[in-house]
Amino acid sequence: MLETTFVGLPLTSPIVVGSCPATESLDAIRRAEDAGAGAVITKSMGSHPSTPFGPADRRRYRWVPRLGMLMQSSYLKEILSRDQGVELIRRASTACAIPIIASVFHPGWDGEGDFERWRSLCRAAEAAGAAAIQLDFFYLDFRKLTTAAVRDVRNRIDALVGSVRIPVVPKLSIDMDGDLIDAIAAESRAPGLVYLDSIRTEPYIDIYARGRPLYDGEQFRHGRSRTVLAGESLLPFTLSLTQRLRRRTRRDLAAGGGLATPDDIVRCLMLGAQCVHVSSFLMRRGPAQITALNERLRRFLATQGYARVADVIGISYVEREGRQHIAEAPFVDRIARFIGDRCTGCGRCEELTVCRSFRTRPYEFVGNCDGCSMCVAICPPHALELVDMGGGGAGAP
Ligand SMILES: Cc1cc2nc3c(=O)[nH]c(=O)nc-3n(C[C@H](O)[C@H](O)[C@H](O)COP(=O)(O)O)c2cc1C
Known about the structure:
Elements: E1 4-6, E2 9-11, E3 15-17, H1 26-35, E4 39-41, E5 60-64, E6 68-72, H2 75-78, H3 82-95, E7 100-104, H4 114-127, E8 132-135, H5 147-161, E9 168-172, H6 178-187, E10 192-195, E11 199-201, E12 205-206, E13 212-213, E14 227-230, H7 235-248, E15 252-256, H8 262-270, E16 275-278, H9 280-285, H10 288-304, E17 317-320, E18 323-326, E19 334-338, E20 358-359, E21 364-365, H11 374-378, E22 384-388
Parallel strand pairs: 3-4, 3-16, 4-7, 7-8, 8-9, 9-10, 10-15, 15-16
Antiparallel strand pairs: 1-2, 5-6, 6-14, 11-14, 12-13, 17-18, 19-22, 20-21
Helix pairs in contact: 3-4, 5-6, 8-10
The structure holds flavin mononucleotide.
């Protein structure tokens, strides 16, 4: 029921564990597989040798509720060395039946020898048994590029795609130049795209520490770093980028960023992603959440009348003039109805400042309801409820 595919790889579930500490050891990857992950993307490996860290060289992660995972680190601390990465891919590919997608990273892009490093990492990942490769650009600066640079980045990605036999997919982020995102989506040879990477932000301040930054801004010995945000806050961007990419390409999409509920996952699938990747939520709550999400996805499909995941992928679109568009729906299709018997006169609805149609004391609809549903959400005795247009609600014809 949950089967899907991504760049030709069969997945038993659309839930892929994104590249993060939840995929940096064989034990963690095995636990993800046992919990029902469709695939994993291994923690990125770089071209650098192992870095000796001192006791003060900690990674810094802090989860802030409703905001997400705030991090400060540097690639030398965050990224596996080449030896560690190759060993992880080799052992995971041997031990696991699910696809192991290797994430590779190199801190340079257009300097002397940089392309060779990228290609060498891709070939090492392929030789170690990876089923596909993700290109991790996080520590590169692709924020503002000239037209020539956009073409050059796309050409190099294409050359990496052609350098191995397994699928190679770039990972996109909203920090990237918009023209680059569009060019990769519309014109590159990559069979699929992974997004969203975490985003760079300015420091987050702690109001209980006299407004000091959460992380003290100290420079690491091992490379520069800024505050990085993943998790909850990324979700609107993930949903938006899914639509933007789907309008430009039929390539396979692996959506991620802020995903933590079955509803969010289904929304990405309906918007055209073949699978999703989940990272910081699983770091925080553990692989058992994969089992729970799979179960809730199955229940959603069954109760909504879908036989399989494939039946929801991309269903939000209609095709017009060869392009995908979100089907138009009337904005107001449900409106509020007042059930006088239930009203206790508590007055909570009187605090609403948005409504022009519901009058209080006496409580009644005097105009067309806009269907905003705020009165429904705040009414303690449920004396206001949403009904389909024409179902007897205020303003119903
Ligand atoms: C602690 C941490 C480490 C990460 N390391 C990597 C990495 O090595 N390579 C990579 O491509 N993405 C890395 N990511 C980004 C995630 O793969 C993912 O794109 C991002 O966190 C957004 O997804 P989420 O909101 O589900 O966490 C990391 C994220 C976190 C939170």
